[in-house]
């Protein structure tokens, strides 16, 4: 199966469409200029790569403008250009086979900053709750799904500076697996004072336009969006599409080295490039041009050039390398997508763009100094490296009409088994405590007394830190924030439970797939409060690295020396289930042997305040109740160790169960809202069944994502009705553990593993149901317990369902 690129869309400091952008790139012009949007008086630099003449109101309705922020608007304009160029006939693809995968580091954080500033300066009661609707990282993906009727997979990825590349790479895998035929992929990020102040505290900002691979004095931050349209090559040819290029390979690794600095020897970067080459079935000798990460910091430039020299050490080519960031700055989560577009345009025009502001050559490589170069280009390598040690590499190839295509969907044969579990939850620390609480019917939800404000919702569930700190190496604690501590504790439990011994021989074949909805909100709040109250210069540089969504994943990789693929999924309340699905997919197709899936969310006053301001927290958090008044939130972390059957057998691992299949869908309804008819939700359930080769009659229980919020619960009720599951026992732990913001699937899977043995599932008492389903009675004994389906739903209409069953050798 080969993947075609049929559309490009871009907004950057060098132009608001691909034609303007490419004209200036090949001419070696700079888009970096003095900042206009934000006050730079306290920063080390006045320079940034801002999008100029940005007028989204010309393309969006007044209502759309009011409901969105700059990241979503950038994404929409880029996607509009890309889809217009792709010119896909309406109805050519099944709506559930077309989706969106978007990478971002900041998303709607400028709106979050506005809300927080209002809270600090004028009081909580004077804040505008509408700002929070477009704050989540998945908002842009939700809007694109709605606007373009993309009802298939919808995923938000946040691996800082490699997020855009990661989104493209995951898009490749989803099409190859048959989950999608066409995807809108890429990345977008706005400028943000949080980001500027953080890099400022690290003394990482260049006081003049950045000079990658040359002066290496620091980075220049920028904003922008890059969107690519990916299609199955055979389908694109079938409809007579103009093929711009092919994207053939994707590499993803972790440094497991340091929160901000890359491994000086470039080991992780080298392995990422190697993986991309292997997946493209080519060698370094085949590479004609490299679009480098090239940020302009000495540490990054040195590590990348070391890795590149190692990659090409056995070739007879002096492969040219250049940095697009020298012209547009560092667009963070958009960088990999923007630079991927540069690669496609290079292939189309047979021109390698320059590295400008180039004065000296300390690394002794061909960096195409200052002037672009006409040359034969058939294959391009693109690199993106990020905080937390996330490395991503992509291979783009020139398309020839006589090109031989491989259109057969690959056969995935690896069974994916659960061999280790760990949890830090209000109902219990570790699986045994959790299982005991479920057996007793215990509830951890209680009245929460926060000090700052008077809230409508007063219920929640917390986990005292002292209960789980013993699972964390004391030498690591000072580097960790709350999210990091929760994540490392459950990770340690799951790894111990699995019995895996991580060493040099297997570390790069184990992945860390991380899911979080709200991320390190406590750290973000602390830093932004400092900016507002004390000023930019007072930001603590030791805190800033923990503000990125993938920071906790980086800590996990470093603590346990896991060096395989690592990514962070941030699609709100489906982040947990999508992380499990991503890991399942990679093991299923033999990319890795095993994966540690970790899903975590904080529950702090800041989170409580935000959800309470939106009016969705309640004091009677009872799922499926007709008069349910809202959710009760909880903090926590769940870790699940997955591995292939072959790998588990070789090391004689204890097996708890088997991931049999998953489905992802979107209802393309509205931002922060869900279509109550439940049809898109039921598609995810049915798709999970289909992949599992099961029927509805084979499902013994439904573990629901219901949360006591009538609108969301009604959507799932209707999904279950469409699914034909009204007679199947339904349960959830959100009424006893509180609702985990990344969704209930991870903790539900841990609960279900006990049910495989004792046939008992948690009880769910519903007095006045929205609709009468077969709600589980307390410790209901099932006739059979062979297969369960786990649902999750996000505000904004993304749904993921997973089937887990007993393992049968």
Automatic annotation (TrEMBL):
- Please indicate if the UniProt record lists Cell cycle as a keyword: no
Which Pfam families does its entry note? ketoacyl-synt (PF00109), Ketoacyl-synt_C (PF02801)
> One GO cellular component from the entry?
cytosol
Instruction: Report the record's Gene Ontology biological process terms.
Output: fatty acid biosynthetic process
Keyword tags: Transferase
InterPro entries the UniProt entry points to? Beta-ketoacyl_synthase, Ketoacyl_synth_C, Ketoacyl_synth_N, PKS_Beta-ketoAc_synthase_dom, Thiolase-like
Q: Does the keyword rRNA processing apply?
A: no
GO molecular function, a single term: 3-oxoacyl-[acyl-carrier-protein] synthase activity
Question: Which part of the chain is the Ketosynthase family 3 (KS3) domain?
Answer: 1-398, 413-806
Instruction: Report the sequence similarity comment from the record.
Output: Belongs to the thiolase-like superfamily. Beta-ketoacyl-ACP synthases family.
Q: What is this protein called?
A: Beta-ketoacyl synthase
Phylogenetic classification of the source organism: Bacteria, Bacillati, Bacillota, Bacilli, Bacillales
